[in-house]
Amino acid sequence: MPSPVPFGTRLRAAMDSSGPLCVGIDPHPGLLEAWGLPNTAEGVRVFSLTVVEAMTGVAAILKPQVALYERFGSAGFAALEETLQAAKAANLLTLADAKRGDIGSTMAAYATAWLDDSSPLASDAVTLSPYLGYESLRPAIDLAAATGRGVFVLGLTSNPEGASVQHVGGDKSVAKSIIEQVSAENADAEDLGHVGLVVGATIGDAPAKLGIDLSASKAPLLTPGLGAQGATAQDIATAFASSYRQVLGTSSRDILKAGPDVNELRDKARSVRDELLAAK
Ligand SMILES: O=C(O)c1cc(=O)[nH]c(=O)n1[C@@H]1O[C@H](COP(=O)(O)O)[C@@H](O)[C@H]1O
Fold first, then answer.
1. Per the UniProt record, which EC number(s) apply here (predicted)?
2. What is the ipTM of this complex?
3. Average pLDDT over residues 240-255
4. Which of 69, 158, 226, 253 to mutate to test the pocket of ligand 1 (most atoms within 8 A of CB)?
């Protein structure tokens, strides 16, 4: 069997053709209500398929928030499976925002669920939490490499509480150690590696204060916090000055509130994408 095209190569191609935007699919109860949809698995299904239709050619990748499907049990997971298939058919990459992390033997099962060709939930990438130790993520990192998929490891998260764990250690911080391990993982990549990092758009000068060099990581950088959590494209361009080519700006509620009209959703996403492209 020929080796699959690496995730970093596929993501760069999608960013070059559609722009550096990841649209989060977060079907919160309030958004479903605003869209005139019921707060049910069927409402979540219709919501998600509308986002897929609107984002074709505008977003590089879609990020369904697994928690918002999981709350409806098996019917919610069926809606998620259909969303992932629809995105694939529309040539959109998918990043399952599941934030998995466990001891290695369990991690292998999570890796199979989200990253194996045989799984109905297989996505192009999945978010991972490294707080059981970076190496505990090994089964997912390796399966992603073998299948041409990717992982995004939480580095510096967008929420204010994140610093109480991630900044601990000063110039030898927890976040710095995670980010250095990601850098080692991507060392052989020509451009983007298959191990991405989640670094919030709201982090300001934290990387400089903690002595972290994001550009050396070759990691695709997912930057939640844009829009609803208060950060702007210009904040991202300032905080990520030397690594801006790696940035995948991501926004959920701020874009989704433009629905349910497909054209209005698309126009909103296009304007966020164009702000990201214009910010330097
Ligand atoms: O991994 C994530 O995507 C993530 C990490 C992080 O540090 N902060 C963060 O907000 N997220 C997710 O990104 C999305 C942000 O949604 P909005 O605030 O509506 O744009 C949610 O699905 C969060 O779970």
1. 4.1.1.23
2. 0.99
3. 97
4. 158
